[in-house]
Specification:
This is Kinesin-domain-containing protein. This protein is 40% helix and 17% strand. By secondary structure, the chain is α+β, with helices and mostly antiparallel strands. A hairpin with a 7-residue loop joins strand 13 and strand 14. It is globular and about 70 Å long. The structure holds adenosine-5'-triphosphate (ATP). The site of adenosine-5'-triphosphate (ATP) has 18 residues, from helix 2 and strand 14.
């Protein structure tokens, strides 16, 4: 039996803004069991509808209070039981993340409501002497800044890891908070420092990810123990399509950092779901900082913000796909508890790391609507721990933060204010801290060296390969698939077995090459973009051949593998959803028929861009792509070169003449929706349903 706690998902659709049309393409549909699902019309084929069942779905008329009372308030008791909770808002730009997290004076969002609830609960727990502190940071262009200090005096802060594997932001200030009112004034000031900019889609668009942490220290003098609970409230920046946002140069740099970090977030979730031994947390500051929330020791709630309107439709599907994956991520919540009683003096070097002890779950209150773990692990920290317990989001306040505390803004006693009588134990602790800081620093330097070395090795390897390719004229050397002229490999189409073998060989070769790329072997990030695409293409083609043979599970695995190389490919995501559904339902899967082979000139004509195909244009993929829509671009990137090489094409969007395939696919699925019955696999934690026909519900 699993002792983990799955990340809970809540999806919220914002109402259309005054200038937006409501086409009803995203809507909430109640399920028979009292739960609900988000239904999204396929932007490429309005006759198809994707269904995403979640335990909490909020429609456009929902109120801030609804989401707070149902999904957030139950977590307040979890924080008071000494557990870390992380709530993050995720969605495309302008989908309502900041509105949900911060809200307005008239409609306060999750953050102000959480703080009010923390103080209400504090008043009801007289057995504890509770102190509450806040820290607030933003991750802007992959750099971390303290939002509680003026920007002029806020250098970028390093992210570190202590000996217990706890990631923290060094030198992040913490501010004691005496009351909810005190918090609101601190928060309002801090928010003015957040990087916000205007885009075509949102005139107050967050250009950074913001992480607010409220930490509670609950000293129980009767029981001689201290519990530390924490809640991280994360307002992520939204993914962006620069063509829609109309971003200028400055905004583009921000946008690319935002998109990259969100893409790494997706890869982390993927890797966790696959059970990889290496999770690429280190590939962005965002994922490092959220490490504890994804696959770590905290309880997680992901609020998925969705925007109505057809222009956001593809992003909405991407957001929901991310949510579907995230709900399979399992955390192992931990109660942070330590004894108050001073331990006998001992030199830090003589102390062994404390062994975790299992504590029955009853000590933690239940989380509404979630599968609770049967056990949680407590970290006993009796006496001076070998490694000082450092807040996951950092301690060591800035001098000006310290000043704020002294100036009496907060009346709460801070842990560091025990300076009056320094004991031998205090001294040992300080030495221990200094040693650990030094070790952390050296480790970081060493890691940077290793990373530099890896990059150098990778470059040298690529250079070697380049030289080999240009000097090796032997005919048996395998040609690059991308460079093959169209039609050259057409005969392979007729020989599927050969095709399989060929692709397998190619994949093995690529993987062998990649293996040589040292320790990062499991991460597609370690490959150049070209190699990633190439590998992705090869997996797609192999997957297709398996799906045609009816080996759907194998095909699905291969498509998923392809996705880790080209995580942004939208059609690939759709294909995975379709096959997942077919596998879950035990239904036959019919891929859309292959696109008929056309001359390049015809292709251009079909798009209506140019009259006749010039030789220059047919040989210039960049130029071709420039004329295509975004969707085409992502598909062409992975699929087209294979098609040109004669390996077949994945076309999800069936043109009119392929309607037969759509009708057939739809005919096998819509009745379930029509009758209002849940799909066989339609439990709360199910994957989305396959497309079903509209108009029959
Ligand atoms: N539930 C809602 N009810 C009313 N208005 C909303 C709601 N959600 C969002 N809005 C409005 O939509 C606009 C965009 O919302 P918001 O700024 O919160 O989006 P965002 O996802 O944080 O965007 P970005 O990623 O660009 O920062 C704002 O004008 C906001 O007031």
């Amino acid at each position: 039996m699993s002792s983990g706690h799955k990340v809970k998902i809540a999806a919220r659709l914002r109402p259309p803004l005054p200038q937006e049309l409501n086409d009803d393409g995203v809507r909430i549909v109640p399920n028979e069991d009292g739960l609900s699902a988000i239904c999204v019309t396929n932007p490429r084929d309005p006759s198809q509808i994707f269904k995403f069942p979640f335990s909490s779905c909020y429609g456009s008329a929902s109120k801030q209070e609804d989401i707070f009372e149902r999904d957030v308030r139950p977590l307040i008791d979890v924080v008071y039981s000494g557990v870390t909770v992380t709530i993050f808002a995720y969605g495309v730009t302008s989908s309502g993340k900041t509105h949900t997290m911060q809200g307005t004076k008239a409609e306060p969002g999750v953050i102000p409501r959480v703080v009010d609830a923390l103080f209400e609960a504090k008043a009801q727990k007289p057995q504890y002497e509770t102190t509450i502190t806040a820290s607030y940071m933003e991750i802007y262009k992959d750099k971390v800044y303290d939002l509680l200090v003026a920007r002029e005096t806020a250098p970028k802060l390093p992210v570190r890891e202590n000996g217990e594997g706890m990631v923290f932001v060094a030198s992040l200030s913490t501010e004691p908070v005496a009351s909810a009112e005190d918090f609101h004034s601190i928060f309002t000031t801090a928010n003015k420092r957040r990087s916000v900019g205007s885009t075509r889609l949102n005139n107050a668009s967050s250009r950074s990810h913001a992480v607010l942490t409220m930490e509670l220290k609950m000293v129980d003098s009767q029981e001689n123990k201290t519990l530390t609970g924490k809640i991280n409230l994360v307002d992520l920046a939204g993914s962006e399509n620069n063509k829609m946002t109309g971003n200028d140069r400055d905004r583009m740099a921000e946008s690319s950092a935002i998109n990259k970090s969100l893409s790494v977030l997706g890869q982390v979730v993927h890797a966790l779901n696959r059970g990889d031994s290496r999770i690429p947390y280190r590939n962005s500051k965002l994922t490092r900082i959220l490490q504890d929330a994804l696959g770590g020791s905290s309880v997680g709630l992901l609020i998925c913000n969705l925007a109505p309107g057809v222009k956001f439709r593809q992003d909405t599907l991407n957001t929901l796909n991310f949510a579907v994956r995230t709900k399979d991520v399992e955390n192992k919540p931990v109660i942070n508890e330590r004894e108050n009683r001073p331990a006998p003096k001992q030199h830090f070097s003589a102390l062994a790391p404390p062994a975790p002890k299992l504590v029955p779950l009853q000590s933690a209150p239940p989380v509404a609507g979630s599968s609770r773990p049967s056990l949680v692990i407590t970290r006993p920290t009796a006496g001076p721990s070998r490694v000082p317990r450092i807040s996951a989001m950092g301690t060591a306040p800035y001098p000006n933060a310290e000043r704020r505390k002294e100036s009496g803004i907060g009346i709460v006693q801070h842990r560091n204010s025990l300076d009056k009588a320094i004991t031998q134990q205090d001294i040992d602790e300080r030495i221990s801290k200094a040693v650990e800081a030094e070790v952390a620093k050296r480790l970081e330097v060493r890691l940077e060296e290793l990373e530099r070395q890896r990059v150098q090795d990778e470059e040298a390897r690529r250079a070697r390969e380049q030289t080999e390719i240009s000097h090796d004229p032997t005919p048996e050397k395998q040609p690059d698939l991308q460079s093959l002229p169209s039609g050259l490999l057409t005969p392979l189409l007729k020989r599927h077995q050969d095709l399989d073998n060929e692709l397998r060989r190619r994949l093995q070769e690529l993987e062998r090459k990649y293996e040589r790329g040292k320790a990062e072997a499991e991460s597609a990030i370690g490959l150049s973009p070209a190699s990633r695409k190439k590998t992705g293409r090869a997996y797609v083609a192999l997957a297709r051949s398996h799906s045609e043979k009816g080996d759907l599970q194998i095909a699905l695995d291969l498509y998923r593998k392809a996705e880790s190389y080209v995580p942004d490919n939208v059609k690939l995501k759709e294909r995975i959803i379709e096959i997942e559904w077919s596998v879950a339902q035990g239904k036959e899967f019919k891929p859309s028929p292959k696109r008929p082979k056309r001359s390049k000139g015809k292709r251009r004509n079909a798009k209506g861009k140019t009259g006749t195909a010039s030789r220059a244009s047919s040989n210039a993929p960049e130029e071709r792509r420039g004329n295509e829509t975004d969707d085409d671009e992502t598909v062409e990137n992975i699929l087209e070169p294979i098609a040109e090489a004669g390996f077949g094409v994945e076309v999800t969007n069936s043109p009119r003449k392929q309607a037969g395939a759509d009708v057939e696919a739809a005919a096998s699925t819509p009745r379930k929706l029509r009758s209002g019955k849940r799909l066989a696999n339609g439990s709360d934690d199910d994957a989305p349903s396959a497309p079903v026909k509209r108009g029959k519900t």
